[in-house]
Amino acid sequence: MTTVSPTPAPAAPPAPSAAAAPPPGMRLRELVFGAACAAAVRAAARLGVADALGESPATAAELATVLNAEPQPLHRLLRALSCYGVFAETPDGKFVHTEMSRLLREDDPNSLRYISLWCTEPWTWQAWPLLDEAVRSGGNVFEGVFGKGFFDYLHQDAHESAHVFNRAMTTSSMQSALDVAALLDLTGVSSVADIGGGQGHVLASLLEKHPTVRGTLLDLPGVAAKADARLREGGALAGRAAIVPGDCRETIPVQADLYIIKNILEWDDDSTRRTLRNVVGAARPGARVVVIENLVDDTPSMRFTTAMDLMLLLNVGGAKHSRESLVTRLTDAGLVIGEIRPVNAYLHAFECSVPG
User: Fold this and answer.
1) Per residue in 43-74, pLDDT tens?
2) Which of 3, 29, 103, 301 is surrounded by the most beta carbons within 10 Å?
3) Residues in Cβ contact with 108 at an 8 Å cutoff, skipping those fewer than 6 apart
4) Three-class SS of residue 193?
5) Mind giving me the DSSP string for 202-220?
6) Distances from the Cα of 7 to the Cα of 4, 53, 55, 86, 96, angstroms
7) Is the CB of residue 299 less than 8 Å from the CB of residue 345?
8) Which residues pair with 212 in a beta bridge?
9) Among candidates 273, 263, 254, which has minimal Cα distance to 350?
10) Reported pTM
């Protein structure tokens, strides 16, 4: 996409100070208009505004020419987003990037473009108004609205949304995989099993960092078939990697020194119990089990994780864990819990072991 970049960019205007925080009445008004903010981020992502804006200030009219949009509505969109620190408006009425707006660029290494699209997909606008029903019933409302389960709907009726979901999960996994690889000490480990590991980005990052370690990726057949190219036949890591199609809730036919379970214990309690029971049953005494999850407490990202928790309630009847709830489930499965450490601002790692 052509970008607008006529002159060197000045520094973006500073964000409003905490001292200027609005009073409670105004803040509540802002919150109930939260859908407008989410919709504005979605519109900017779909239009490609962040990709069109280069390193220099540009007017809405200049950007509108590149984006095939109307200048005045685009100016209104950018003005609204600038209130939240997504883009910034200069004193002469031009717009520049901020740290947040750069994350909407497709080519940014930490891009959140597809995460932004996923969290604002069309189905979300139909499900969120029914949150009170989900709270009353304790179960998902998705099937009542769409007539089928969440993933069946995605893959049968909402192909574009399924594509966005896959891109969002891939982006998120690739970004966190490096953090996980940096955190984990693999001293004494010769084999790693990534249970329900999706495309295997965590496993690939670990194998790249530890050239003597072998690894196994276990996930559903349709997911495993799309594993990271580094792990598949002909890939750089294929000689040390095995890809095993299977359902961790049914059986785990893998023995390893270290089992990694990342972000799969959130769908329902029965799935969580079965998965952990199968890991303990498959593992040798003394094997390490590292469980990595978003927490709804004890984290600097609680606004984000509690929002994800409510979305899980809506669409699949699942839940994010608190530290206490995850400790309880790990202990009930027979695991011995050791250190609990943050992976990054969004994830915590629970270091466990199988009793001897």
Assistant:
1) 999 999 999 999 999 999 999 999 999 999 99
2) 103
3) 102
4) strand
5) HHHHHHHH-TT-EEEEEE-
6) 9, 12, 8, 21, 11
7) yes
8) none
9) 263
10) 0.86
